[in-house]
Amino acid sequence: MSTPNSKALPVNAAARMHENRLNPVTEPRAVRWLLTGIALVFLALFLVVPLVAVFVQAFAKGIDYYFESLKDPDAWSAIKLTLMTAAIAVPLNVVFGLAASWAIAKFEFRGKALLTTLIDLPFSVSPVISGLIYVLMFGAQGWFGPWLAAHDVQIIFAVPGIVLATIFVTFPFVARELIPLMQAQGNDEEEAAHVLGASGWQIFRRVTLPNVKWGLLYGVILCNARAMGEFGAVSVVSGHIRGQTDTMPLHVEILYNEYNFSAAFAVASLLALLALVTLALKLLAERRMSQVVSEAKATAQH
Q1: What's 62-301's CATH class?
Q2: Are the CB atoms for 93 and 173 separated by under 8 Å?
Q3: How confident is the model over 78-102, as a mean pLDDT?
Q4: How far apart are CA 281 and CA 251, in angstroms?
Q5: For residue range 15-50, what is the model confidence (pLDDT) as tens digits?
Q6: What is the spatial distance between Cα 216 and Cα 213, in angstroms, rounded to a whole number?
Q7: Within a 10 A sphere around the Cβ of 272, how many other Cβ atoms?
C-alpha cells in the first residue's frame, strides 16, 4: 500500500532536477560570495594597484616634470620609433592575416595544416629567442652579415631589425582572430556571389571583408598593443642605442636603471594609457564579434 509521501518524493526529485537545469549555479550563496571576493582581491592586487602606482609615480614630482619627461629628446625619439614600428608592423600583419585566414577558412589545399601550425609559432617561441634568431641571420657574424656589410645595409642594431622582430612576434594576432570567424560564417555567401558572376576581388571586398570587419578590428587592436609594448625581441636586436634604437619599453628600462623613477613612470604611463584604450576597444570589438558569430551560426543552422 502506498503512502502520500511515496508519491511525493519522485515528484519533488523531478522538480529539483528541473530547477537545477534552469539554474546550474547551485552552490550556496556564501561560496559564491567567497569566490567572487577572491577574484576581486586578486584583480585589485595584481591589476588595479600596479596600474594606480604607475600614475602615482609618474606625477610624483608634479605635472610640469611629467610633461618635461615626455618632451625629453630621448623620450620623444623612443615614442616616435614605437609609433613608426607599429605603423609598419600592423598593416603588414593585417595583409598577412587576411590572406592566411581567407586561404585557411575558405579553401582546401596541400600544406594547410602546416600553415596553420606555423602561424602559431611566435606563441610557442620566446621573444628573446626570436630576436636572437634575427641576430644569427642578419648580424655581423650571421648568415647574411657579410653580404649586408658589403652592401652597407644594417639591419641588426637599427630600425629594420626592430621592425622585423616586431612583425614576427605580432603576426599571429590578426590571423588567429579571423580564422575561426570565417570558418563559422561558412562559404554560402561567397558561393552565391560567385554564381552571380562576381570576381574573386569583388567577393572579398563586398562579401568577406564586411562580414569580418569586427574580428579584423579586434585582431588589429591586439596586434597594435603587442607591437607597442614588445620588449624581449626588440631588446635583443635594438642594441640599446639611446635616442636612436630605443622604443618606449626599452627607454623605461634605461630610466629606471638610472634611478630616474618619475621619468620612467611618466613614459610607462603612456603604455598604461594604451593598455586602457586597448581594453575599451577590445570590449567593444568582442561584443560585436560575438554577435556576428552568433548570427553566422544561426544562419548556418537554418
Answers
A1: mainly alpha
A2: yes
A3: 93
A4: 26
A5: 555 555 555 556 778 888 898 899 999 988 888 888
A6: 5
A7: 17
> pTM for this structure?
0.79
- Does the pLDDT of residue 1 top 50, yes or no? no
Cell 556571389 -> residue: 193
Distance CA 12, CA 157 (A): 74
What are 65's three cell numbers? 616634470
Between the alpha carbon of residue 253 and those of residues 29, 268, 280, the distances in Å are 46, 10, 27
> In this predicted model, what pLDDT tens digit does every residue of 200-213 receive, in sequence order?
788 888 888 888 88
- Which of 107, 81, 102 has its CA nearest to residue 230? 81
In angstroms, the CA 165 to CA 158 distance is 11
255/213: higher pLDDT? 255
User: Distance from CA of residue 167 to its chain's centroid?
Assistant: 13
Pairs from 73-80 (Cβ < 8 Å, separation ≥ 24): 73/243, 74/242, 74/243, 74/246, 74/251, 75/251, 75/263, 75/266, 75/267, 77/243, 77/244, 77/246, 78/246, 78/247, 78/248, 78/250, 78/251, 78/267, 79/248, 79/267, 79/270
